[in-house]
Amino acid sequence: MTHLLSSVAHRSMTFAADSVSPPNVGYGAMFMLILFIVGSVWIGIIANRSTEKGGFMKGFFLGNRGLGAWALALTATIQSGGTFMGFPSLVYSHGWIVALWIGSYMVVPITGFGILGKRLAQLSRRTGAITVPDLFRTRFHSPTLGVTCTLFILLYLSFMMFAQFKAGALVLKLAWPNSDSMSLSEDAAIVAPVSDPVAAVSTAESKKPAPTEAEKATADAAAKKAEEVANFRYHTGLIVFAVTVVGYTLMGGFLAAVWTDLFQSLLMFLGVAILLAASLYAVGGLEQATMKSLENTGPGFVYGPGYMDDKTSTHEFLPLSLAISFFVVWIWGGVGAPAGLVRLMASQDTRVIRKSIYLLSIYNMGIYLPLIVICVCGRALIPSLKSSDELIPRMAILTTSGLPGGSLVAGLILAAPFGAVMATVSSYLVVLSSGVVRDIYQRFINRDADRDHLRRVAWGTMIGAGIISVLVSWNPVDFLQAFIVFSTSGAAATFLVPALMACYWRRATTKGVFGSMISGALVVLVLYVIGVFNLLPAQGIGTTKGFHPYFLLGLDPLIWGILVSATFGIAGSLLSEPLDEELVSRMFDAQTNTTTGAT
Amino acid sequence: MQIDLVFQTFHNRPRFRSPFKLADMTRKTDPLVHSAIREALLVTGIWLAAATWSLTVCYQMGYHRDVKDLRLVLGFPDWIFWGIVVPWTTCTVASILFGLMFVNDGDLGKDLENTDDLGLGG
Question: Which residue from A48, A57, A50, A134 is spatially nearest to A454, judged by alpha carbons?
Answer without folding.
Answer: A57
